[in-house]
Design brief:
By secondary structure, this protein is α/β, with parallel strands linked by helices. Strands 1, 4, 5, 6, 9 and 10 form a 6-stranded parallel sheet that branches. A two-stranded antiparallel sheet has the order 2-3. Strands 7-8 form a two-stranded parallel sheet. Helix 5 links the parallel strand 4 and strand 5. Helix 2 packs across helix 8, helix 5 packs parallel to helix 12 and helix 8 packs parallel to helix 9. The N terminus and C terminus are likely disordered.
Length: 478
Amino acid sequence: MHLPPLVALLTLVGAASANQRHARLARKYNYARDTTTPSMAAGTSTSSPVTSSSSAAVPGATTSAATTAAPTTGPQTNTWGTTIPPLTQITSDMPSQPTLPLTATYPAGAKPPISGAPVLPTPFVFQVASWPPQDQIAPTDSAEVSEWMQELNGFDIPDIPPTADGTCAGDPAAAADAAERGWWTCGGYTRDTDITACPDQLTWGVSFDDGPAFYSKQLLDYLSLINVTSTFFVVGSRVVERPQVLIEEYMTGHEIAVHTWSHRPLTMLTTEQVVAELGWTRKAIKDVIGVTPTLMRPPYGDIDDRVRAISLAMGMVPVIWTRTPSGATFDTNDWKVAGGVVNGSQSFATFQAILNNATLLDTGFIVLEHDLYPQTVDLAIGYTLPAALNFTPHLTMDSIGHCNDIPATNLYRESNQNTSFPYPNSTSGDSSVPSGSGGSTSTSKSKTGGSVSMLNRDAIPMTVIGTVVMAAFSALLL
């Protein structure tokens, strides 16, 4: 038997199973994770041009009056060769569309668009025995996890017990203590080290979760067409399946960040399991593109002060989507379309309400969208992104790191220019990861809503060090 075809077949089967598992989770997590969160009301606005992060002129942007509502009849044929169904036909049982082949090959030794980053490594070959089982909680009994656990030494990891299942309804006792825990899922509690918005008003921090996937290429082509860069929060189990997609995302200027190995709610896991989930994803990314991200997003936004401290100690700053002062979250619910909970029309109406709510904020905003499913990609390239391009008041679309004035070099440990980051006690065992020194102290405050601390170009690591190390942090959490 020829091994490469077998590996390719197993990869296809594994990816299909992952899509089905995510759809089941969408149905499971449909009930209110936070009963205090109000629903958004759908709304409409008129159009105006949008500025991308890369250029003031965006192809397709107009100055004429129009509404944000995308046409609900169709189908729409797009210039990059795919046909987007009408909103009413974007459902969990919609027919699958053909995938697009990758259009570029980046050989080992190719220079990435990040100053000081290492060249692309030798092409990644997935060896099943060398990795945790895909889409299962990463085991903790490996030498790798033991090594990564050492990165927590010297850091104050709060002794907060895991939640029952990462939901408010599943753990009422933990939900009642959400403010002390700093639990985002129940009450939207954040800390100053979290990134929850873009600082500049009317700036959308564009991001997509759960890939790289079979339909990510369609999304990449459209983002290139409109000259917009995004932040991709990638799942380790998908990275080892679709390494070439991750390479194209990285090499075409998009930001890459960590989204765990198996996409489980992190507050329900033990400290060792959280380390394993983050560590294996970090390793997969580095094995494929040669760099280690310094941003992460917890699945479902499920983070508390224990998970937050673990992430920071491992050199990753948490990023969550925006929440208004009234508690409405900027989640498009596109992932629920694949799960059969909502349809495309309902998801797009939610996005329209998000845009209207964004105009009421004194900061920019971050929206939750996904590139794992054909439904979510169709919604993005056929409806949500075009609606943002034709929205009044004028929007700027940008990747999350860039909109927060974080230099591209600081988004990866190997190219980072901030001498205070990574942390001085870094014990990753990787000689390519520089050690830093120094740090400053700051006060960590619990906050809710759509605000974000005004982090300057080099302040994230120093703020993180001060927040995690100092004793006041522990007193606040406990």
